[in-house]
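ugh ok so i messed up the first submission bc i forgot one of the chains. this is the corrected input, ALL of the components this time, i swear. 228 residues overall. if the numbers dont match what u have on ur side tell me asap before i send this to the collaborators (the ones from the other lab, u know who)
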Amino acid sequence: QVQLVESGGGVVQPGQSLRLSCAASGFSFSNYGMHWVRQAPDKGLEWVAVISYDGSIKYYGDSMEGRLTISRDNSKNTLNLQMNSLRAEDTAVYYCAKDQASGLYRGLFDYWGQGSLVVVSS
Amino acid sequence: DIQMTQSPTSLSASVGDRVTISCRASQNINTYLNWYQQKPGKAPKLLIYGASSLQTGVPSRFRGSGSGTDFTLTITSLQPDDFATYYCQENYRRPLTFGPGTIVDI
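and heres the new structure output, hopefully the right one now
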């Protein structure tokens, strides 16, 4: 069965960096686009970034663009999110999510990880 | 960006009730509309994609309809497991956007 397991969350100070990872299993990771979606405490869902199946195409949401790098290692079935210059408003649970469509991506999420909490606080 | 709105913000219902949640897009998104269910402390779960297609494994009491700018999620007979927050999401254009959510409680 499909499993997505995030890691790397924690408490950081404003301005610091953090790298999240997502270990994927149970499907052909290299065939699917992958996303990050976040959810601030008691708030709604916000799409953060997508990377195509081969890593050649990357897009970012508006709120964190310029401070993020999404990447993947298909040899290790791993998705990453490098977050820089973190702000208090970036405090959220960060989910990795699998795109439903193989190939490029379709922009909907059929499997999600359990989430990784990032707290930005001084 | 495409703005998504949902109504109502929350609703109270009983087991066996028919429940309808609305979602509206700020522009025409054809049928690029998806619905998710989220329970407290858990990741969202895909219910409906392409406005009306049922995701594999999702009970048939969940129905989606609509096109263009107006969409509806209907739960035909509410079950105890259905008390949750429901989000719509468009995948017509980047940035992908979600509605603010509708809480369905007892």
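quick check: Chain B is about 0% helix and 50% strand. that seems consistent at least. The mean pLDDT of chain B is 97.
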